[in-house]
Design brief:
Rossmann fold, alpha+beta, OB fold (Dihydrolipoamide Acetyltransferase, E2P), 10 helices, 2 domains, single chain, binds adenosine-5'-triphosphate, 344 residues, 6-stranded mixed beta sheet
Length: 344
Amino acid sequence: MEGMAVRLQGLRKTFGETVAVDGVDLAVRDGEFFSMLGPSGSGKTTVLRLIAGFETPTEGRIELAGQDVTRLAPFERDVHTVFQDYALFPHMTVEQNVAYALKIRKVPKTERLRQARAALARVRLEGYGTRRPAQLSGGQRQRVALARALVGRPRVLLLDEPLGALDAQLREQMQLELKALQREVGITFVFVTHDQQEALAMSDRIAVFRQGRLEQVGTPAEIYERPATSFVASFVGTSNLLRGEAARRILGEDGVHSVRPEKIRVLHESAADEPGQVTATGTVAEVVYLGDATRFLVDLDAGGRLTALQQNLTTSAEDVAAFRGARVRLAWHRRHTVQVPDAR
Ligand code: ATP
């Protein structure tokens, strides 16, 4: 298939009795930042290892740039893997670490050094070339691992939770940097994460995994605004589902419906209904002041519970406490309610 960096067909992998990957069909486009998202044990790392060639599929086919690589060894595939622990050589300098792949390919020394320095500059580590990994911070080691990956100009870069070892603030910064870097170099990234916020922030498209299968593949907006299953609705973003009696009374419909917390306004119980709006009355069970926003947990009179997230435009922390136990009316646009098929 044209323009596809990676293509998986009927991919299946078992380890003894465990079915790690259970029939996955997937195509990653050239130059795409593609994330595989799912809870622990859902099979995303195994899919990554299958693409890299560290595992052999039980069934199915793997193509890289249109070529069948299912039976090829890792070094015969035009991919590079960045692991969470970075796997840097501790006894080598930063420059030597980055140049290593070029040395293996017998690139002459001056050219190796030139390319290694260029790659280090790309990840903003000029001047660090003679240090050893132990003399770097976690974020800097992460950058060295990236420089080492980029220097070989692989067609596809496979990244397994590369930001997992970083603290929250550095992680957010690296998310932006990594995304910018990917745009600059134009290499296809296949990125494994269990962090939905990270996947939403960085990806062109996301594949959501559950128990070795794909639940949904789509852009961050599609995954978030139009979850295809109740699992996706709950795993990506705050689970906010109306079902059964509550769905019938509030929406006049059967089935399971998802509405995102930030779409819901918290109003006085006596507020008037507006055309096109869904409203539901209830009692505030809990309020959480988050600084920039406030989260309300509301027990609905129709049954069930919804979370509403309000920006703190004029609200202060003191106002927030007064809401606990208060009677409120929740309101949102009907078009923000998405019906989702129930769990399989
Ligand atoms: P995590 O986020 O925790 O890394 P994951 O979604 O990447 O999880 P995998 O590591 O792909 O999940 O594992 C999928 C399933 O396959 C799990 O049940 C796991 O225990 C099993 N598994 C993975 N590798 C092996 C192995 N080498 N031997 C036996 N079972 C394995």
